[in-house]
Specification:
This protein has an 8-stranded parallel β-barrel with strand order 2-3-4-5-6-8-9-10, surrounded by 5 helices. The chain has 11 helices and 21 strands. The protein starts with 7 loop residues before the first strand and ends in a 5-residue tail after the last strand. The protein is 30% helix and 25% strand. Strand 16 and strand 17 form a beta hairpin.
Length: 388
């Protein structure tokens, strides 16, 4: 590896993505389309290579959150249908249509704006209706007090000029939680989803694609497959539920030991002097910090994996560096590679220590960290997102 890359880098295993894709297909059955969620740069793994691999494997759809993410995929030659999940201003309707993107529509007012702009652009915008069955975020509200009003609003929306309504979907709030109250809430959301579809069909409004199964539902409610399922973080082999399906993590975040220093007892390390050596200590300095995506919340909590054992982080994580205690690992030397997250050092465990979720930690791996992609055990691409 060139010295310009051998600072901190992320190795992305596309063979793991292939393994996970087939495992998820088996879980949900042959009759449900696979939507690959590649928003947020594929949760930090690299949207272009993830999308390209999913397209080659046979996925039928992709999902992103904004028009710039869609443009990135189209410029890279990705041809699959793309569902745009996020809030999109109506003045972007022409760009949505030009990039052959399907837009989520979350309210009648938004639909009217999209309709007006689509007609002005001289075409039709493909759309999926978003139902709010209990996430309390985007969508036509389907609680018992607003159900009938939303039913009428969806009917009117589907009749608007300039819109080609292909699908309908909802999103679960707690499908990844095992408590009975959460399971009952997920079942309630699904009942609301199915009831809205049934009532719309009675009005003659039907949809080619119905989908609701996110990561949690893919694992715990495969009977909710409908016409398409859209696993998110578990596609990348992380999250607390990934192991239940034998999924493999794709990302290994690595760095090197820049220098090893020796300190006397009672020496304090890093900002705030939160770590104090209780004995003669060997300390390694790593060129990775919170600007690279290693959360400061992991200070004095996390560790890195070395071939000689785990080395705990000593002191506060800095912007560009952090320190590790090598006192009990005399075999570790300057220049050695270490694993920050990966198969020996699960990002899920790091997320628990940081009081967050694994999504946040992989999404946080910054654009200055090169991604190096492997397929069939060989490097096939590398990517650095800093402007040249």
């Amino acid at each position: 590896m060139e010295s310009t890359l051998k600072r901190t880098w992320a190795e992305i295993d596309l063979d793991a993505l292939e393994h996970n894709y087939h495992a998820l297909r088996r879980q949900m059955g042959p009759d449900s389309r696979f939507l690959g969620v590649v928003k947020a740069d594929a949760y930090g793994h690299g949207a272009i290579e993830a999308a390209r691999t999913l397209e080659e494997l046979g996925a039928e759809y992709l999902a992103i959150s904004n028009i710039d993410e869609a443009r990135e995929l189209r410029l890279a030659g990705i041809r699959l249908p793309i569902l745009q999940l996020g809030l999109t201003p109506a003045d972007q309707t022409a760009a949505v249509m030009a990039n052959n993107v399907t837009q989520a529509v979350w309210s009648e007012a938004a639909a009217e704006d999209f309709s007006r702009e689509a007609v002005r652009a001289g075409g039709r915008m493909k759309a999926h209706i978003k139902l709010d069955t209990g996430m309390s975020r985007l969508g036509f509200q389907c609680d018992e007090h607003r159900f009938e009003d939303s039913l009428e609003a969806v009917c009117r929306t589907c009749a608007l000029p300039g819109l080609e309504v292909e699908g309908i979907f909802t999103h679960f709030a707690v499908s990844d939680e095992s408590e009975e109250s959460c399971r009952e809430y997920t079942r309630l959301q699904h009942r609301r989803f199915e009831e809205m579809i049934r009532r719309l069909e009675e009005r003659g409004v039907t949809f080619a694609i119905r989908h609701c199964a996110n990561s949690g539902a893919t694992v715990s409610y495969p009977q909710f497959a409908h016409d398409m399922f859209r696993p998110g973080i578990i596609t990348y082999g992380i999250g607390d539920q990934a192991a239940l399906l034998g999924l493999r993590p794709m990302m290994t975040l690595k760095t090197v030991i820049g220098v090893v220093k020796e300190y006397d007892p009672d020496t304090t390390i890093s900002y705030g002097r939160t770590f104090r050596a209780g004995r003669p200590s060997r300390v390694g300095v790593l060129p990775i910090g919170y600007a690279d995506g290693l959360h400061r919340a992991l200070s004095n909590k996390w560790r890195v994996w070395t071939p000689h054992g785990m080395a705990p982080i000593a002191g506060r994580i800095c912007m560009d560096m952090c320190m590790i205690d090598l006192t009990d690992l005399p075999g570790v030397q300057a220049g050695d590679e270490v694993e920050v997250y990966g198969p020996h050092n699960s990002v899920n465990d790091a997320a628990h220590l940081a009081g967050t979720i694994s999504y946040e930690l992989t999404c946080a791996v910054s654009k200055r960290v090169p991604r190096i992609y492997y397929r069939h055990g060989k490097e096939i691409a590398r990517e650095l997102l800093l402007r040249g």
